[in-house]
Amino acid sequence: MAVNTGVIGKTYPTAEYAVGREKIREYAQAVGETNALHLDVTAAREAGHADVVAPPMFAVVYSFPALWPVLFDPEVGIDFSRMVHGGQEFEWGPLVVAGDEITTTVSVADVSERAGNGFYVFASESVNARGETVCSGRWSNIVRGA
Amino acid sequence: MQPGDEITPLAVTPDRYLTVRYAGASGDFNPIHIDEEFAQQVGLPGKILHGLYTMAQVARAHTDVGGGPGSLKRLGVQFRGMGLPEHELVVTGTVRSVEDGVAVVECGCEQNGKRIIRNAEAELRLRLRDAS
After folding, report:
1. pLDDT at B128
2. B1 touching A (Cβ < 8 Å)
3. Which residues fall within 8 angstroms of residue A111, CB to CB, at 6 or more apart?
4. How many Cβ atoms from other residues are within 10 Å of residue A113's Cβ?
5. Of the candidates A17, A74, A85, A21, which has an alpha carbon nearest to the alpha carbon of residue A52?
6. How far separated are the first and last CA of chain B, in Å rounded?
7. ipTM
8. Which residues of A touch B55 (CB under 8 A)?
9. Share of chain B above pLDDT 70, in %
10. CB contact, 8 Å: B76 with chain A?
11. Whole-prediction pTM value?
């Protein structure tokens, strides 16, 4: 299969995500979190947080809106029926709490072809309203060859 | 926490409807995760777990031993094969190094004897009393 390495470095419009208390609780319950910081506002405040704290992997939720444009970019040309999520990496900064507004920017970090399969790595950078990077992500997808 | 230490394993069995709740919570509604018939039509044994749900279990094993959500500095994983609902997931990890208050843990997740997350590495910020 042919891959378009010309898109390496392409950056997409930023997407904003307003972090809601009930969304954090819904996510925390879905992944089985039992830490009260994610579920109980009083416990979170007693621990010094402004509101319930997002589990680290909640990064998926606030990053997703910024990822759709690259996944559907015809210049990138991903065939979803052949795509598998190969790997994922996140590095976290300050904690995200309910009430935060997170802005995420996504770019194409790498595109390559090996053994007829396409390898796509997308980079995401999420910052809070204070300009602090709360999470950097590397999303690796493999598109199997025909 | 010292090199060679194993982190407390985390075992969880996602129930039959977990993928539906995770789809709603995460926003990933790919039908291979929530529609049994669709999944079988594309050659899967049935609905499969979201890789990022399984990764969240690996993250949770680390924040549980690290003392909370702020302890997880970095997590990188590779997904292999597929996870299934109603089968137990077991997350394990071994501390490889401890330096400058950060523990590096080699970790992974197994289901039915198969490693569905492998080559995973976590960095944990140790609490001050553990960092010395």
Report:
1. 54
2. no
3. A3, A4, A5, A7, A8, A76, A118, A119, A120, A121
4. 14
5. A21
6. 10
7. 0.95
8. 57, 88
9. 96
10. yes
11. 0.95
